[in-house]
Design brief:
368 residues; alpha/beta; 3-stranded antiparallel β-sheet; 13 helices
Length: 368
């Protein structure tokens, strides 16, 4: 494979950087080799490759050869690069990026330096004695730094507006009152911390990736917003308690898939949430082989709807009684053993934790 030219290297690095990616040398060579397949539609092929990478549940924004090659293989095998070589088709595709709970960046606020710093150490599976107190302390510090820059808190007192509210356990409130001689703080007015516009937060925290989908440059944000405004017919379908061992559920699911198969614009995303079995998959459960085959049948059902298979993505999120190490949140993705048969039919299906995050175009969502 010939080494890419200097102009090609510069072009690839700039395009990937606009999407929030950094290319290693071997990944750059893999991307250049893919573009060589389409000398007459190089820019469209590159946009398609970037769109497909956006959909992958990547663990890092720094891409190596394996990450790029995995997407290239899917594109070549399905011949999607040829079918989507026009700008209209490319812009219509859903740029989906899914973030697993176990790879979400974790930040802590330093009240002395007044900056956020990312936790880079390895997190333990089991919490320690001080972790619960640290949870509330970190939450308090995050709210405090936001209050400190709120324009209303530069004044000596609240502008009181009486409303009805619920203050539940572990809620952080802002209170105004008087500390009495007996040490009791007598509250005159209390309320919730004020909200802050997303744009204001992003402008102050520029360069920090709290969501986990990568830092998106301004140019790319504008492009994604334009795509979202144009995608007036785009839709997501979210289904829960998809019991694969229940014949009635599978029959009704087939009816739902048939309905969306026949619409003019198929949904860009199907979210299938557990539980995926009518019985809890605990230590007493002894039908894992049967459940594995049922996932395979689900894959066959989806593959039989060719438009859904080609143009929709399928995201699988485990429920509280699905197979896994515990019922505590976050729950890891479904075990590989159970989903192998389904992946033979739907190789680009996505299996992630519960909860998970995903962004598509300019929209960011959390599913739990």
């Amino acid at each position: 494979m010939a080494a890419p030219s200097a102009a090609m290297r510069k072009k690839l690095q700039r395009k990937f950087r606009l999407r929030g990616f950094t290319l290693k040398v071997d990944a750059l060579e893999e991307a250049a080799a893919f573009l060589d397949r389409f000398p007459d539609a190089e820019d469209d092929a590159l946009d398609l490759l970037l769109d497909e990478l956006d959909k992958e549940p990547l663990k890092s924004s720094i891409l190596d050869r394996d990450a790029v090659r995995r997407v290239v293989s899917l594109l070549v095998e399905a011949e999607e690069a040829v079918d989507a070589a026009s700008p209209a088709a490319t812009s219509a595709r859903s740029a989906l990026r899914v973030v697993d709970s176990f790879v979400v960046p974790r930040f802590h606020y330093d009240p002395i330096k007044k900056v956020f710093y990312e936790h880079t150490g390895r997190l333990s599976i089991h919490g320690e004695a001080g972790d619960k107190a640290a949870l509330y302390r970190d939450r308090y510090q995050v709210l405090l730094q936001r209050l400190a820059r709120d324009k209303y808190f530069s004044r000596p007192a609240f502008e009181t507006v009486m409303t009805e509210s619920f203050f539940v356990e572990n809620t952080v409130i802002v209170a105004e009152g008087e500390l009495l001689l007996n040490g009791i703080f007598q509250v005159n007015t209390c309320g919730f911390p004020p909200l802050e516009d997303r744009e204001a937060s992003l402008s102050l925290l520029m360069g920090l990736d709290f969501f986990g989908g990568g830092v998106i440059p301004t140019e790319e944000t504008l492009r994604l917003s334009s795509l979202e405004n144009k995608a007036v017919n785009d839709m997501f379908v979210i289904l829960s308690d998809v019991w694969l061992d229940n014949p009635e559920t599978m029959e009704k699911l087939g009816v739902v898939l048939d309905g969306y198969e026949s619409v003019e614009v198929v949904p860009s995303l199907f979210v299938l949430m557990g539980n995926f079995c009518s019985q809890p998959c605990n230590l007493a459960f002894n039908s894992f082989e049967e459940l594995r085959l049922q996932f395979g049948k689900l894959g066959e059902m989806i593959a039989a709807r060719t438009r859904l298979k080609e143009h929709s993505r399928f995201l699988f999120i485990p429920g509280p009684d699905d197979a896994g190490p515990s019922k505590a949140l976050p729950r890891c993705a479904l075990p590989k053993y159970l989903i192998e048969e389904l992946q033979k039919h739907i190789p680009n299906a996505i299996f992630v934790s519960n909860p998970c995050r995903f962004d598509t175009k300019a929209l960011r969502c959390i599913i739990i």
